[in-house]
Design a protein that fits this description.
By secondary structure, the protein is α/β, with parallel strands linked by helices. It folds into 2 domains: about 140 residues, Nucleotidyltransferase, domain 5 (2-Layer Sandwich); about 120 residues, Nucleotidyltransferase, domain 5 (2-Layer Sandwich). A hairpin with a 3-residue loop joins β1 and β2. α2 runs parallel beside α3, α4 packs across α9 and α7 packs parallel to α8. The radius of gyration is 18 Å and the shape is globular.
């Protein structure tokens, strides 16, 4: 994986959030990805060559531990974000891919797809989140760790294909609970305080034990696999130095791209 190229690609998506890519000519097919995260819902829109065209992100608490618990709320938010993008682009978005935590099956997996369908998308694919992240990063070998609001998901890659996946319910929500308890804040107040970059140096030492637990989850799963590089993605690992905790615990070089929160939705759209 070329980290410089991956970062440039992710930056190009960050630049069109809430906007439209100035070079987009309004022609050709569009690919969409809907990321129903525990802390955020994001829609990424790409052209047929996977270049970012537009996108929207909205903070929401409609998913818990990777599972939809507020169905109607999820649908309403996805519809709202979709409408904003359609108005900017002047055309209808018809198809989209969605993503689930690794190991999600049955009705839980179908619920995610149903949210996207209820927002008037035809669902083209439902992939696991670390696999989507790997697609956006262009990673062919190693392990992709997607740390979202609710879960820590891991995909093992061999020759560009997923060899194994794993997921456990520890993520950014658990960090927020620590912040809330420490400062006596409500959950929503603590979430806003946690994600404010101005508070990062103060907050990271508080949530470091949670990050270390995530790193332990990764180490345990990787014990039976030969992995040369770990790629970290997801909003919960956005703190500076987070990847060093994983690297120290696992003894494996760990890379974190820019805008880690945006990696997975970008990859989901590539399946759209």
């Amino acid at each position: 994986m070329d980290l410089t190229s991956a970062n440039a690609y992710i930056e190009s998506f960050a630049a069109v959030l809430g906007k439209t890519a100035p070079e987009w000519e309004g022609r050709g097919k569009l690919k969409c990805g809907v990321d129903l995260g525990t802390a955020n819902i994001c829609i990424a829109v790409l052209d047929e060559n996977d270049k970012p065209v537009s996108g929207e992100i909205f903070g929401a608490q409609v998913v818990r531990d990777g599972l939809v618990y507020d169905y109607s709320g999820s649908v309403a938010i996805v519809r709202k974000l979709k409408a904003r993008i359609e108005e900017r682009l002047g055309r209808r978005l018809e198809t989209a891919a969605a993503a689930i935590p690794p190991g999600t099956v049955g009705r839980d997996a179908e619920c995610v797809a149903n949210v996207v369908r209820a927002a008037d998308f035809d669902v083209t694919a439902v992939v696991d989140e670390p696999t989507a992240a790997a697609r956006a990063l262009g990673a062919k070998e190693g392990a992709v760790v997607d740390i979202g609001g609710g879960t820590t998901g891991i995909s093992i890659l061999r020759n560009g294909k997923v060899a194994a996946v794993h997921d456990e319910p520890t993520g950014g929500t658990h960090m927020t609970l620590v912040v809330a308890g420490h400062y006596g804040m409500s959950f929503d107040e603590a979430e806003r305080y946690k994600v404010d970059p101005a508070n990062a140096r103060e907050v990271f030492p508080l949530v470091k034990p949670v990050a270390e637990k995530m790193a332990t989850i990764v180490r345990r799963f990787l014990e039976n696999w030969s992995v040369e590089t770990i790629y970290a993605a997801g909003g919960a690992c956005a703190f500076d130095g987070f990847e060093k905790i994983i690297e120290r615990e696992c003894g494996i070089p760990t890379v974190k791209p820019a805008h880690s929160l945006l990696v997975t939705p970008l990859g989901i759209a590539m399946f759209g």
